[in-house]
Structures are given as structure tokens and as C-alpha cells.
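Recall from the previous chapter that SMILES is a line notation for molecules. Here it describes zinc ion.
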Amino acid sequence: MREVITLDLICPHCTVGLRPAVKRCPQCGHDVSRHSGDPTGTPSVADNWADHPAIVLGMLFLVLAALGLPWLWRSRGFSKRAKWFWTLVILIYTALLLWLIWMAIGYLVVQIEALRAVW
Ligand SMILES: [Zn+2]
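With both inputs in hand, we obtain:
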């Protein structure tokens, strides 16, 4: 007997991951019975703003970068494939961002050194 914990099943109230069979969220007691009967996850009207892909992606790119990846994986607004795709994109984006910051620091150091030589 295998025990499967599906990440697609998430409490809409507190976004904790749920086992497929549960009727109530073990963390907040929210009634999740209607979700467990629908494993394909037809997109219902998201009552949690973290489930909106545009908002999650906006936060990831503008604020959190790779720090927001756990959040992305908890969101119900993405398919598993989409989560992997965006994880990859965010990781590359974060690496690029860190590289840019590194280059900017290097540039500033060179500028300061040049100023020092003049003074
Ligand atoms: Zn809950």
C-alpha cells in the first residue's frame, strides 16, 4: 500500500498541504471535502490571492526571487509542470540578478579606486 501525498491538494484557507482523503484541514479545520472529491483540480474561483498565478509571479520577480519558491509550490494556481518551469526561470533570474549586483559592485570598486588615484 502506497501513501500518496499530493501537493495539488492544499487547504484553500491556510494553504497547508493535505492528504487526498481528508475532509477537514488538520491545521485550521477548514472544510475541504469538496476539494478531495475533485483530484483533477478544475480551477475554481480562487479565494486566496496567493493562488493567482500573475500575483505569485509578480511577487517572485519583483520582490522575493528564489526566496519565494516555496510559496510558488504551495500555490494552487499552477500545474505541476508550470511550477517546475517557473522554478527554473526564477533560479536563472536570481542567478542573473546576483551576477548583475556582483558586477555593479565590481564596477563601483573600480570607480572608487580611480577616484582615489586622482585625489
Ligand atoms: Zn487549513
